[in-house]
Design a protein that fits this description.
Elements lengths: L19 H30 L2 H17 L29 H66 L5 H6 L2 H10 L8 H14 L1
Helix pairs in contact: 1-2, 5-6
């Protein structure tokens, strides 16, 4: 049998139905095929739009249409058996008893006292070290002072001996009486007498040096 000019859906060679049940089954298969084709076209359009909310509605529409077709029993979906509760965020909260709380507080108090004792001991040790250091510094300072005093006395003695030079007989004979008296004063000698007495006294002193 030749097809018509316009090849519409459902045209062409058809199967002859033998009974009313076969007719019903055939109509049901055709309806499901048409519905699936339309749904695929709608899904393609929704995917192009990229809408997340539209995708959810599309899924619900697909489910409702599939249930309304011959594949479902026509009953509405019943309520959920259990309500999902949101899970708490973060780590789980640990609940301690009163006895555990007392034990923890006792441990903290023990640690605090031990730290206080260690700190007090450290301060005492620092004070002792400081006192020793101060004592050593004082001893070094005293020793240095004594050394300086000894050096100063020696320098003074040397200075005094250097100030008074030794005179020769010729130098004494050439001196005038006033110069002789000054020389005798420097040497802590008597300045009484005439020139000859002064000269003799000074020559004897210089000869004994």
């Amino acid at each position: 049998m030749a097809r018509g000019k316009f090849n519409k859906r459902g045209g062409g060679k058809r199967l002859d139905a033998q009974s009313a049940d076969e007719i019903e089954q055939r109509n049901q298969r055709l309806a499901e095929f048409e519905e699936n084709r339309v749904q695929r076209r709608i899904d393609a359009e929704e995917e192009e739009k990229g809408g997340a909310d539209d995708g959810g509605e599309k899924k619900e529409n697909h489910t409702s249409k599939k249930d309304s077709s011959g594949g479902g029993d026509g009953k509405e979906p019943g309520p959920k058996s259990a309500v999902e509760t949101p899970k708490p965020e973060g780590p789980p909260v640990v609940v301690t008893s009163a006895e555990d709380h007392k034990k923890n507080m006792a441990k903290l108090e023990f640690v605090r006292r031990r730290r206080e004792k260690a700190e007090a001991r450290r301060l005492v040790e620092e004070e002792i070290e400081l006192a020793k250091e101060m004592e050593q510094k004082a001893m070094f300072s005293q020793a240095a002072k004594e050394v300086n005093d000894d050096d100063g006395g020696k320098k003074k003695k040397k200075g005094k001996s250097k100030e008074i030079d030794k005179l020769t007989k010729i130098e004494i004979k050439k001196m005038k009486p006033a110069v002789m008296k000054d020389a005798l004063k420097e040497r802590k000698l008597d300045i009484q007498g005439n020139k000859n007495v002064l000269m003799t006294r000074l020559i004897e002193y210089e000869g004994s040096r």
